[in-house]
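Quick start: what a row looks like.
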Amino acid sequence: METDIESLEQATLDAVAPQAIETLPGWLLPFDNTTVGRAISAVPIWHEGVDPTVIEEIQSRYTQRGHKVQFRIADVTGLQRVCHFLWEQGYTPQQPTLTMIGNVKDWAQARQGFNAHLSDQPEPNWASVYLSEDFDQEDGANRVRALSRSSCLLYAWLCDESGAMAAGTVSLSHGWASLHGMRTLARVRGRGCASTLIAALGEAALQRNIQRCFLQVEEGNASAIRLYRHLGFQTAWRYHYWRKPA
């Protein structure tokens, strides 16, 4: 399982494509000027045997680059010493998020009655969903930039007569298919747009012989979690972003 954790975290950063990544034993250190938490948070690649004193070096590296320091730490027994060390350093756990894993074959049941458009390049219709007034536009612009930099994404979107109405991506990296940036405009929510996108992205992953999959979703997003569980995803672990109070 430890090998799977490492490949999953590497695949995550391949998708959100931070501007730079450094490594320390047991850690990945992404650096970027963005609101995308996974692209700016130091993350352990093991859930056992992580030396918490390395955190001091991590803090130094982020400070040297002029970046705010934050961490993404799984709520597992093997990382309790790390969490305790962060607490003593003045960090607090925020934004609980689930890492869920599954099998791409289970996505087929998500198919709905829309036609999805897919591309290996970020298209204007795809980007327009993130830049919609339905969402935080600064965060949306950051996500478009991050996801557009990735070299391993497929981009999907749905349109109707009014224009693009939903978008998402799948990253195909390190043997994983991972969903990122799933967004649906308010005017069409509840009509199966997310399911259609997932089914289309799943077909593309299976064509490339990738079957295992994961995603990360905020714990409070109950409607998304219901959909993902319906598609066979199970929670592998929960994590928090550890940040110092502003």
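That is the whole record. DSSP finds seven helices and eleven strands in the chain. The longest helix spans residues 2-16.
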